[in-house]
Amino acid sequence: MKQVLDILQDSTIVSKSGKDERSRFWGVYKRVAEEHDSEFLERYTTDMDIVLIFSGLFSAVSTSFIVAMESNLSPDPSDTTNALLKQLVQIGLGNLAEAGSKPADPASTWFLTAPTLWIQMIAYASLSMSLLAAFGAVLGKQWLGYYKSNRYGRGSQEQQGKRRQEKFNGLVTWYFDAVVQSFPVLLQISLLLFGIALGAKLWYEQASIAWVIIGTTVFGFLFYSLTVMACLISTACPFQTPTSTILYVLRIDRFLHLAFKRVSCYFQWLMMSLHAVLERLSSIVRLGWTLSSEVFRGPVPPFSYSSTRL
């Protein structure tokens, strides 16, 4: 409310009519609120549309990956058919002993490996988060629509302004910005989990190909982490992301500032200590060269045995 009052005091669009000050105040308030709400609604509506489109495309890719690995969760029925056909061929050839030595049902000897189980769990978690992000985006569009249609209500201009300010204060009190920004974060986590699952699957099948996926995933994660840390360290950083917004709300930036300050102080102390050690070594080397030049400046005098007698 204080920011709105400051804007209204500096505003030059107030009409010089015969209206009282109260009416002019709420008239200017509505103009300023309309400008703010238009930008606010457009920004978040665009973000929710992006989340919906990307989550739909990504869910299709993730689902195809899960379907391709579905056969690893249960024994293949064709293996049983092939085993029975092999036994019939062996019986037809008269190899009864060899036919009876192999199980007719390979499913009895099949078991689910731990890597396959973990890869499937990560893949399903990735798909679940992408669907949850899409669900959150749908809710976000509904919330924005409700705010747009009900922020003024009915009544006089003053009543509409007060109702709109109450709605806007509710957005701040209930951390609407952080909640809506969490939906793109879910989508980013889903993308990271998908990269981990894909890299792990290829690692057990073809390690040389898996290194490409692992390297790309690690590079993307490090790059994203550095941009988030840069945003927390400096508010002027242009690489603002939904993750940095949520961390601002959680006050993580204060902890990061303190940690960065301590690391900076420790680094300065380390550099000063290293500089002092280098200076000491340099002085020792210079002293050694000075002594060497003094000792070997002239010829060595002959040693007299008589002069050393008592």
UniProtKB/TrEMBL annotation:
Classification via Pfam families: DUF6535
Keyword Membrane applies: yes
DUF6535 domain boundaries: 26-203
Residues annotated as signal peptide: none
Chain segments annotated as transmembrane: 50-69, 117-139, 172-197, 209-233
Keywords tagged on the record: Membrane, Transmembrane, Transmembrane helix
Name assigned to this protein: DUF6535 domain-containing protein
